[in-house]
Every structure is written in C-alpha cells, then in structure tokens.
Amino acid sequence: MASVYKINKGVTRPIEFRGLKAQYIAYLAVGLVLLLISFAILYISGLSLLVLLPLIITLGTTLFFGVFRLSHRFGEHGLMKFWAKRSLPNYLKFRSRRLFTSLKSKSNIPTTSFKN
C-alpha cells in the first residue's frame, strides 16, 4: 500500500513537511544519506552488526531530534540570521583618524580612470 505524503505550501509560506520548515528538510535528507553511506562503509570494513546498529540508530535519532529542534527554534531563516550575527565583531578599533579625516573633502576621494 502506497503512502501519500502531503507537503503543505501556501502562496507566500515556506515548504513544510511534517513540521520541518524550508532548508531543514534538506539538512535531514543529507544527514540520512550520510548515515546510510557510513553504515555501508563500516559494514563493508567488517564492523560487527551488534556494534554498528546501535551506533547508527543513536546517530539517526540524534539527527532527527537535532534537526527538528533547530527547525522549531529558529524557523525558516533564523539559523542563517543566528550565524550571521555571530560572525559580526563586537567592536571595531581604529588606531588613527586618518581614514575618516580624508573623507571630509571630495577632492581626497580616489577616482579610477579607465585608459585603453
């Protein structure tokens, strides 16, 4: 019996699938593919299934809960805004005022000329 999953999408709303919003669907998909590849590599390398299955199940559960938590905490664009805000410096230090004093007159602004 085939299952039909409904993806809710309004005109101006982000894609939402089972509570996951926007890019978090892709994060979960990439994480699951990486888990599948790591399972295959570890199984081929000879690791016992008694060790491998609990490891993959634990990592998969952590992935699901982590992605759902990020989706609910930050929303559609909140994670990108969070990382952008963290990359801003707290303050800027200038040791001289030369940069600002040269901006007062328009004659000090360097111009570029294109000569062929």
From TrEMBL:
The chain crosses the membrane at residues 24-44, 50-71. Keywords: Membrane, Transmembrane, Transmembrane helix. This is DUF4133 domain-containing protein. It comes from Pedobacter insulae.
